[in-house]
């Protein structure tokens, strides 16, 4: 499994991270969960992404209970979690970045994961009424206490990261955002710069270039999603009929490199020189193996642009 540097953290991590959002639902059988986690680690994928809202924290509990967390085992993996989203009956009702809430959220995460520290803590969404001075002090105290070793964000714009860094003198190592061939705002807007079209609207405020300049790793959540709420563009066995051209392009690459279309989609993401780390949410080893195979393939420029265009993206 290829390795990569995670921002300015100094960590050498696998090219693929495992998103554990569905662990409590798809691996409620602890033996099944344990088998998945241990096999993933044997394959070299030892970076696990959590969040305190994933099934109300149950995914974190299942993870730790299934694996039978020990100090020795903990040293062999990287654990990342996220906090600050407030949910009521599955609906987001706000965000909370106050000192008391963040401290309590981190303590809850550590308790559920049965560990003394997180390798990476991400702020899950930007809080529009955040007191950044207080937040910076809170994160610093978490660092000094040893509870969190490194920090990042999720779904933040460049200016929101700059504002955080004004009050927090530690590297922001990660920004986790949605990215796939059908969710290319970070790429499409700069291409369409100075063009009076909807594609030219800078929804993400130049995030891709900013993160490359600042040595912040972009993590791609939902790399197989068509959009936030439009489902996947390909599955393990059945393609989404709404995206025939994209699946055709991925199949051509799959045939050329003797991989699967899932592998081809991952290969498309990791081909970008920003060294984006896909966060894959599968709980199936066979599907994970396809993702790993994709991380080993380097697409040509022609391959990459063929997929980009097949997804409906326009080049000027």
Give the gist of this structure:
This protein is of the alpha/beta class and 316 residues long.
Description:
By secondary structure, the protein is of the alpha/beta class. Helices cover 41% and strands 16% of the residues. The strands form three sheets. An eight-stranded parallel beta barrel has the order 3-4-5-8-9-10-11-12. It has a two-stranded antiparallel sheet with strand order 1-2. A two-stranded antiparallel ribbon has the order 6-7. Helix 11 packs across helix 12. The chain is globular and about 50 Å long. The chain starts with a strand and ends in a 6-residue tail after the last helix.
Tell me the strand percentage band: 15-25%
> What general outline do the C-alpha atoms trace?
globular
Distance between the termini: 37 Å
Rg, Å, rounded: 19 Å
Strands, total number: 12
Oligomeric state of the chains in view: single chain
Mean pLDDT: 94
- Biggest sheet: strand arrangement: 3-4-5-8-9-10-11-12
Low-confidence stretches: none
H-E order: EEEHHEHHEEEHEHEHEHHEHHEHH
Sheet with the most strands, sense and barrel status: 8 strands, parallel, barrel
Return the structural class.
Answer: alpha/beta
Q: Give helix % range.
A: 40-55%
Number of helices: 13
